[in-house]
Amino acid sequence: MAKLYITLTKSLANQSKSHLATIAALGLKKIGQTVEQEDNPAMRGMVRRVAHLVSCEETAEGSET
């Protein structure tokens, strides 16, 4: 299954409460911090909502046999 690497790139100062909650739900706390999340529609929606604050990189994992 594919993974998303999400990095917080901008400051959270003066952001709305909903954006702060979305960033927290993604598991991000500091600028420059990167988290690895499963690629699913819920994660894609959260990243899209705060796209101006984060950068996202998609990686495809090979089959493990």
In short:
The chain is of the alpha+beta class and 65 residues long.
Explained architecture:
With 65 residues, the chain is an alpha+beta fold. It has one domain: Ribosomal Protein L30, Chain: A (2-Layer Sandwich). 29% of the residues lie in helices and 26% in strands. It is built from two helices and three strands, in the order E-H-E-H-E. It has helices at residues 17-26, 41-49, and strands spanning 3-8, 34-38, 54-59. The chain has a three-stranded antiparallel beta sheet with strand order 2-1-3, with no helix packed on it. Helix 1 (17-26) crosses helix 2. The longest helix has 10 residues, at 17-26. The radius of gyration is 12 Å and the shape is globular. The mean pLDDT is 93.
Key words describing this protein structure:
65 residues; alpha+beta; Ribosomal Protein L30, Chain: A; three-stranded antiparallel sheet; 2 helices; 26% strand; globular
Order of helices and strands: EHEHE
Level-2 CATH architecture: 2-Layer Sandwich
Rg value: 12 Å
Number of domains: 1
Spans of at least 5 consecutive residues whose pLDDT stays below 50 are: none
The CATH class: Alpha Beta
Biggest beta sheet attributes: 3 strands, antiparallel
The total count of helices amounts to 2
* Strand order of the biggest β-sheet: 2-1-3
By secondary-structure content and strand pairing, the structural class works out as alpha+beta
Q: Specify the oligomeric state.
A: single chain
CATH evolutionary superfamily: Ribosomal protein L30/L7
In what range is the share of β-strand residues? 25-35%
Mean pLDDT: 93
Helix content: 25-40%
